[in-house]
Amino acid sequence: MSGMPTSPYREDLIKAEILAMTGSRPLNRSEIAARLGLGAATVSDHTRRLIELGFLRELPPQIAGRGRPKVPLEVVPDAAYTLGLRVHPDHLIGVLMRLDGSEVRRFTRPFRPGEDPVGQLAAACEEVLADPAVGARVLGIGLAVPGVIDPATGTVRLSPRLGWTDLPLRPPLAERLPVPVLIDNDTRASTAGELLFGTGRDHDDFLVLAIGDGVGMGIVLERRVHRGPAGVAGEFGHVPTSPDGPRCVCGRRGCVDAYVADYALAAQAVARGLCEEPPSPDRLRRMAEDDAPGVRALLADAGEILGRAAAGVVNVLAVPALTVIGESHVLWPYLTPGFQRAVDAGVIGVLPDLEITVRAWDDSGHARGAASLVLAASLAA
Ligand SMILES: [Zn+2]
To answer: pLDDT value at position 223?
Structure first.
């Protein structure tokens, strides 16, 4: 290993974490140091810089017993914004986010992946930057893209849903736009959001399970989003479960995706004679709610496959928490009997019970993640 940085951008995750933490409630420097496992001097350096930037402010000191009074720090939410865009096959969703993770606004724009994607993305960003009320406050732009993304080169290596192969996306955008631009896989973007504004508030190590038209996994270890050398880590959907299982989109058989992705559930519903047309996740949820024959069993079976594969990851990484996101989270109540059974049976006894959180989710979720993702990079720029 050369030890050379593989990424053209740097992250200042500590500053981003301080802003996120003080966004939920004011904290003094020793509380920040304890939570992040850092020394007092390091925290003082970072908070001094954030105060100089106007992103953080000191509140009146609090006298507690003997010793020096503690100075609570709070974020100045509107001091700066980040913009996140989620790229869908037919539209873009944008979220403009404050420093405390709350939303200034969100918007959607039509999008055609096959027609000058860089031009369309740049135009959507330029529209926000040109707005005199907010433009000058935008620190950076994050893009969440479905597929295999190399965040170091800013290239989309493979996105079947967008029809992109080896498309350099970040370099031309970075050239055209006046603020730092970052792209990443959509699940990992949302994982960065969970680290700053969600599960990361209580856990240093956790998994994000994204279920929808594929199954992805975000991995946070010691407060860092794990990407892998080429940015491909997290392809949980292609964990093999059965050599003679259904054919997966990747060409192999019996992957988790081939049982649990929305198209796979729909295909099984038809194959089991539960309905005639492939159902959407919402339709499946309604069928399960109505207790249509066989639907709950189908979802419990899928949940069990998902849970067994997840238990394997939990055993390897010893993570105590898992957060569920994605379009198919609506099915979770019916996936969970099988999932929980498999996790209970599969996770080794020395590990604590896995804490499972299901995140309220909508179409803008990955856009919020992308806005979180770029915060740490913008602070380093
Ligand atoms: Zn596969």
So the answer is: 92
